[in-house]
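Please go through the sequence line and token line underneath and see whether the fold suits the sequence. See right below:
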Amino acid sequence: MRHILFFLTALTLTFPVFGQQMVIRNPEISQLVKQVNADSLKKYTEVLASFKSRHTLNQDAKDGMIAAQNYVKAKFSEFSSKSNGRLTSMIDEFVVPSDGRRIVADAKVGNVIATLQGTNPQDPRMILVSGHLDSRNKDVMDAIGASPGANDDGSGVALVLELARILSQTEFPATLVFVAFTGEEQGLKGATYLADKAKAASWKIEAVLNNDIVGNSNSSETNISNNTVMRVFSETIPLAEDERGANIRRSINSDNDSPSRQLARYIKEVGERYVDQMEVKLIYRNDRFLRGGDQTPFMKNGFTAVRMSEMNENFLHQHENVRVENGVQYGDLPEFMDFEYLRKVAAVNLASAASLADAPGMPQDVRIDVRGLSNSTSLIWKAPLHGKTKGYYVLMRETSSSMWEKKFYTEETSLKLPYSKDNYFFAVQAVSEQGTESLPVIPSPLTR
């Protein structure tokens, strides 16, 4: 992001019972957030829902998946023309072999990907924002019947398009990648392909923000209507944890501090900082009960990933054939979406992705000194490998707290605090001159 003086252009003071809370917003990120447009999101969604079927196995070039892929690619190309060529896009095609279940024969499919290259050629970090392009009916194998998929997951792809439109006009040190996956409903095929490709090529993906079903604010059965709350799902025990990692986790009791959980907390803090009337709920699960999403293959390959989703799902308009039954309209149609709500979810994504792409990399070799008994806590670390760092925050929270409660600023690479490590958890994050923060890093024990 272009260098600017860090000052307060938006200062919000609230007065809860126990004191004051000050919200400091980076002015440039605030301006980007304001550009997220509900009408643009609605237009993208309506076009996506107008294709008869975006089923992964529907290869209709005029009204099926291929047509939908071409539409998304065309939008990326349109945004590229306004980015001085910094945004490039492609349809990354691959073959999914028959699995005898949801892929009945070898199928040629593709992810639609746009890449906004970072301004620092020495910085390999990547921030990935995604949704899935394919849709489905009640019968997951019905590749022909009408399946508009407006909310599942036209909403996620619309969000990806809107972020690409806005962020491609700004420069960031790190690279931003925007992806519309295929094959999610057939078994996370597109995400698995890209996650395996990223691992094989040693991509430095710092965060995956996956968006799936993010455009509805009204629930079925309970009739709850609320467009001020969204969910972020994050894994507890890392799916890719090795024995060494498990030993460290058990020794320091960091079950609630996986990298994905740190990303979820980051999204909550940054999202609520920049987006008014939106609460980000942390859900301590990889996904909904016994369900999954495109973040999972990235977690399995050791990348930090979360799933964003609406708070109240409406199952009359999810995985249902379009029909009227007993006077009730079924089917995933745009008319049942809340585009102002989708705007706010997109804004949370944008604030989080822009902050990560603008921030320095994470501090390295973060350690907590346990070489002697003490009621103080000493932490030491090394500077990030990439990005310009002005200073660091040492974060602290009680062991029973879900969010970091205090931040201690320092421009050194060590800090001693008069708080016992027996009673608190700690982490360290790097801070840029503009005030954007890296993801936090949990310290490992320093024993010698």
